[in-house]
Each structure stands twice: as C-alpha cells, then as structure tokens.
Amino acid sequence: MIPELVGQILLLSGAAIVGMVVHRLLRLDLTLACLGVGVLLGWAVPALGIDTGIRAHSLKDLVFFIILPVLIFEATWHLNSTLLKRWLSPILILATLGVLLSCFITAGLVYLGVGHATGFPWIAALLTGAILAATDPIAVVSQLKSMNTPADLATLFEGESLFNDGAAVVLFVIIFSFATGAMAESSNHLMYFATVFLGGLIFGVLLGLLAAIIILLLGKVPATSVVLVFTAFGGFYLAEEALHVSGIMTIVASALVSRLALREQETTFLSGIADTWNWLGLLFNSLLFVLMGLVITWSMFQEQWLAMIIAIGAALAGRALAVGICGLLTKPMSRPISGVWQVLLFWGGLRGAIAIALVLSLPVSLPYWWTLQAMVFGVVIFSLLVQGPTFKALTRHLERTPFKNNPPPASE
Amino acid sequence: MDTDLLKTFSIHVLEISVLLFVFALGLGVLVIAYLYLADVTQTKQAIRKNYPVVGRFRYFFEHMGEFFRQYFFAQDRDELPFNRAQRSWAYRAAKNVDSTVAFGSTRSLNQPGDILYLNGLFPTLSEDALPAEPVTIGAGYAAEPYTTASLVNISGMSYGALSTPAVRALSAGAAQAGIWMNTGEGGLALYHLEGGCDIVFQIGTAKYGVRTPDGKLSDEKLEEIAAHTQVRMFELKMSQGAKPGKGGILPGVKVTEEIAKIRGIPAGSDSISPNGHTDIRSIDELLDKIFHIRTVTGKPTGFKSVIGDSAWLDDMCETIHRRGLEYAPDFITIDSVDGGSGAAPQSLIDYMGLPIKCSLPLVVDKLIEYNLKDRIKVITSGKLINPADVAWALSMGADFVTSARGFMFALGCIQALQCNKNTCPTDITTHDIVLQRGLDPTEKSERVANFAKNLAYEVGVIAHSCGVEEPRQLSRKHAHIINAQGIPEPLEQVFPLPDIRPEYAKIPVVEVDIAHSTVTQEPSS
User: Fold this and answer.
1) Nearest to A213 among B33, B44, B257 (CB)
2) In angstroms, rounded to a whole number, what is the distance separating the alpha carbons of residues B356 and B403?
3) What is the percent of chain A where pLDDT is above 90?
C-alpha cells in the first residue's frame, strides 16, 4: 500500500521535474511544458503496459487533501502584502463583485449554450462558473515584469488573482454543497451553512493562533516552516475528516490569523517561509498540470468539443463583463482602472492551477462530471495556448496608444 | 406540553451558553499565551519584553488617556489650546442659551499677564449704549473701500481644510451676522459665495485661485475674483500663526477631486504651498504687490503676517512715507504664534513667532509712531474667542478681530485635534462622506450667526461697564494687567502709547468717504 502510494507520488513529481527541464530547455511556458509531459506520460504508460494505479477517483483525494490546502494556504498567506494597499479597493471590487458576476454570467451562458437541463442542470453550470471565476495570471505577470510596463499593472493582476482565488473557492464550496445534496439533506439550510462555514472559520482561528504560539515557542526558522506546512495539511484534514467543517475556510482563517499574529516576526522566525511556499507552490503547480495532462484523453475532445467551445466563449464573456462593470464602478474612485487596463485584465485573466484543482476535486459520482471537467480543461488549455502567448503582443500594441508607462490618468 | 417545550428550550440555551463560555475561555487562554510569547520574542518595545501581556496596557491607556482626560479629569481651566470654560462659553453663545455663570469666577485672577477691566462708577446706561462704530478700510485709496461695523470676523480657513458643509454653514452664518469671511488660501469656491456674506479673498504663497499655470499671480483671475461684489478685500498671506515660515499644508487624504480642481493641483497628493512668495522678497516688492493688487481689483488690500523679528516694521513705515500713502497696505492682519487649525510641524506651531499679547501693541505703537494708524487698519487673530479677549484686542488698538477656531466651536468642534487627518468627528474638517452627514449647514449657520452676535454683544457689555458707549471706544486706560508680583498694574503703564514722530506729524489724515463706501456696500445687502 505505502510503496504504491510513494511510487505514484514519485512518478508524478518526476514528471513535474521533467516538465521543468523541458521548460528550461525549450523556453516553453512551465504550465504548458508540464501539461505536455503529463499527456506524454498518459499515453506512454499504458502503452508500456505499466499500471500506475492512478485513477480519476483517487485523483480527487490527492488534489483535495494534498494540493488544494497548500495552494490556498499559500495564496492567503500572501494576502496582506503592503504592495496591495494602493490598489486595494479596485482589487476588492474585482475579487468580490467581479467573481460573482463572472460566475453567474458564465454559468448562465454555459447553461443556455448546452441547453440540456437534465444532463447539465443549473447547478452544474454554476459549478462551472465558480471554477472558472478564479484567475491565475502567473504567466502573464512574469511577462509584464519582463516588459517594462508599469509595476502597478502587475500588482493589480497579482492582487486580483490572490483575492479572487479565495472568493471563487468559497463560492465553489457553497455551490458544491448544494450539488452533492449535503445542504438539501439537512433540515435547516441556515444551520448547515453556519456549522460548516462558521465551524471552519472558528476552527481555523484557533488553529492559526495555536500555530503562532508553537512557532513563537520554538523560535527557529526551519521549525516555522514545519509548523506552517503542517497547519496547512493537518488543518484541512482535521476539518474535513474529523470535524466535518469546511476545510477551505479553516485554511483561509488559520493562514490569516497566523500571518497577523506573527507580523512582528517577519524578519526573524518568518525569514525562511517564503522559500518554503515558493518550492511547494512550484511543485504543486507543476503537479497539477501534469495531472491534467494525464487525465486529458483524445476522446474528451471528440465527445465534448462543442461544450468546450461554449465554455470558452462563456468564460471570455463572463470575464469581459465582470471586468468592464467593475472598471465602471472604480471610475469615481481615486484609482480607477483605465480602459486599456481593463482590456489587459480581461485578456490576461488566464485560468490555471486553482481551476484545475477545483475540477479535479469533484467526485466522479456527479452525473455531469465528465462534461464539466472537459469544459474547464478546454478553457484552461485555451487560455494557455491562445491568451497567454498573445498577451505580450496585445500589451505591446496597446502600449503604443497614449497610455504609455504611467498609471491611468485620473480622467480616464 | 408547553412546559416541556420550555424545558428543552432552556436546556438547549444552557448547553449552548456553556459551550460558548468554554470556547471563550479557551480562546482567551490561547490569546494570552500568544500575547505572552509575542511580547517576549519581539525586540522593538522594551516594556513589552520586560512586562509581557500587561505591558501592552500602557500603549492602550496612552492612547485612550487623551479622551479620558478631556471628559473626566481636566479642570475647567486647564486644557490647551482651549480650556473648557472658553469652549463652553463659545458653545453656549452659539446655541444662544444662557451664558451667565454663578458663585464667582473659576479664574484665579492673579496670573501674570491676565487682564482686568476697570469698571466705571457710572456705567453706560442701556439707553445710551451705541452699536459698534463702523470702520472703513481703504478709504480714499481703493476704488471700492469696505465699511463694516463687525467686530469679530471669520479668519482664513481654506475650502479643503474645511469641509463643504462647514464652508456653507460659515458663509450663511456670516451673512446673517453681518461679518466677513476669509477664504483662506485655497481659492474661492461656490460654497463661499452661496451664503451671501462679505468675503475677504486670501492670496496664499501658492496663489491658489489666482495663479497662472506657472505659479505666478494672474491679473485676469484677480479681476475675475474681484468681479464678485461679495468679495470686499484681498489679503496677501505672508505667514500664518500655525506655521510661520512654512506654506499651507493640506494632507493628500483631504485633496478631493473638487478641491484639486479649485486649486489646480492633482487630487490625492499633498497640497504644499511654498514657504514664501517667490515674487515678494523685500518691503518694496511687498508694497508694489499690494498696490498692484489694489489697482487691478479696486478693493482694499492688505497682508497677513505673524510678527517675529520686527525691524522691518520701521523699514516699511519709512518706505511708505517715502513712496506715498497709496503704497501702504489698507490693513495688516497680525496672527499670533498659538494659532491655527491647520496641519503644521510641531516645532513651528509651538515655538515660532510672537504671541499677540506682545505683537499687537508692537504693531499698533509703530503705526501710531509713524502716524499711519488711520491709514492702515489693524486686524488681529489668535485664540480670541471670548468677549474679554476681544475687548483686550480692541483696547490695545486693533480695529477688527478675526477668529477661526471660535467659529469652529460654533460649528460644533470638540477639539479632537484631528484637523490634519480627514477623521474629524464633527465633520468640520473631513471630506469623508460618511462623517459629513452630521453637519447640517442650515442648523449650524444659525449657530455661527449666534456666536458672532453674542460675542459682539458681550464685548459691548464690557465696554458699557467700563463707561464707554461702544466697543471701539475701549482703550488702554480701561484695563489693568497683572504683573509678575500678581498685582494689577495699569495697562497704559506697561504698554505706554508712543508719541507721533515729529517728522511725520504733518501727514494729512485722509477724510473718510463714508458716502462713497455705503454706496458700494449696497450690492451685498
């Protein structure tokens, strides 16, 4: 049992490392490289006649209990960066209203586009919308940084993705609890909601505080990493398995509380934690794309190409409208988002790790699981293959318009 | 059945309360454990390291103490900048409620420098009392001299430093009370004009409102401003009480779109005026500028300054005599060291400049010495918010008094000392829309008017007790000042009136052209 599990993890990690090598040698995007390696692995392994033991239903647990906690803990941990302060209000609007708008518009369009109320009900459309509301612009941000565009734009991108990951995940969990019927089973919706979410929050606060106490007590840089990583994994596991409260809420709360409680130790005990999150983030991001490559099959494109196209259109429209409306709302503020920046935010809003993680964490027992996964994969692949590579050219093009190099003029 | 339900319900409630209690207790223990460890490991604050957890209370109390002291512990007479006795007089005057006190004075009446007025054996009877004498500024030299009987007027506070509702309330209140309002250096906003009061336009070092794009004085804009009949005078601000030697400071949080537009600066960034006029570097240039502004606008023009070094006063008076009285400022506004609602560096707000206690007699005496007292009117400001203070200024020779903070108290200021932060709890100096809901311009304009009227009325009461008919007849012989030994001494003796220098004694005093000035005053009434 244990050797098998270790073997699986090592295989995937090895693939991720190969992906990194490919990324380095071919100058391909890391995400694309890992995806490619995953596809190759998925094709080669059965061909060689080896059974890796990796199945779709076992993937769910792997992603849910191992990858998701760390990704969310890491995203939340970086939230209170001082860089964000300048753009806090537009970012918050994008991450709250923007996520809701994007989710519901995408869901509506997907639902109408598929037009199959029994096979693909509202709840499935809403799940799709929530999953696709999280943006993951790592590739775009690194492009922006290399291109000598205003630093504010990169900050806006990064800040938005940090906040909207959390918002989208929470939205996903709410809709998911309806989808699996957990909410409906309970006689009292409100009570259920309160127990799961507030329970998660309270548990997270306690856990965060406890983690801070232990870190302060140990007072060693390496120990800090051990405790925090353990908090991310352990908190999620305990919340979901033992307490039956929302693991994601637990992680969000504990990351926020421990970060806040340890703010005075930034230069002492926390000095090494950035590295820990960096390597974990790199590994798990690569892992996710390898997994996605493994899961993708040719038949998915053959059977679901129409659904994929619908989802791509819907996701683009949802994102465009959400950014546009939020941009309009920021107009009277001290830092409005200019028209050009809105276009960049729209096109640069790639879907990545969080979307993959969320869709992979869906149980295969859901009847619309296959379609949903195909749709999300379609959107992710589209944003990797089309949006990402063309983003640079788009920015260059828009840069030549009068908005060069300075933050948006106040009158814009 | 019912009792059963009640029973289970109460058991539920009990269980939940117990759970909550245990949870709160546990959380409390965790928090204390965390605080202890955080305090012990941090290296920034020694008190927290040596006295973990309890040491934190020091910082909390330090912060809260300010509020507690004001409400619970401060005596009537021991707060600064304004003590409770001064403030409550202003509040009561503004609300037009009974402002009498009983059972004697809470003042110690023996502090050196305090003023005691000398009542006459035969006070002026009510039927003999006269209203304050009108004074004309710029008579014979400005095309439109300004005549007013007002005693206490609203000192310069810019739109920007003040909120929109505050400016509107002041404008309407000033119109009601018949006093003028100084715009401060932030330019002229529609809100200033709205109430219909007389306006003194202040030209700050950044020349907001009358500047060319490159920061010079724009004659066109001056004419534009002067075209408003409500604008009666122009005041060049050389320095202000809060920060002599530094220009106006409006913190970025208070620079809204609207304010930025009026001033012609970017919104959200600090508005910092130069610390002096770049085009006025000598007495001659100052007089030239004043003459120029008066010629362009046709309205009386003077300047405002804090008196520190005073050698330039002789220089100025001599220059005026050499070049002609038309070059004299029509008025000088003397600001005190202890001034100002504005944001200012502490070392300047606390230590720079002379208080009016000494600068007012200094300037008045110089003007008398050079026989310019009739030509140049003296306006003074600096914490003169109570009748006795105003009466002192008049006795010393001031023609007018202005006050900023007195009128802020009338608007409801509670001396929270937040003027520089956009967090004013009484809406007077905040542009935060949420906080601004509290200040109703109509209601507060009444208070502004009441304050001005009651202040003038009670100055009159002092004058009548001294046996003169109206406030402007008060002079140095009507008061004593307490000396270092705690004994009252005649004010005349401490500040003797100087003699006019013989070489300037023959300067013809210009006849005040009342007829002309009353005609020009009509448009505003």
Assistant:
1) B33
2) 13
3) 23
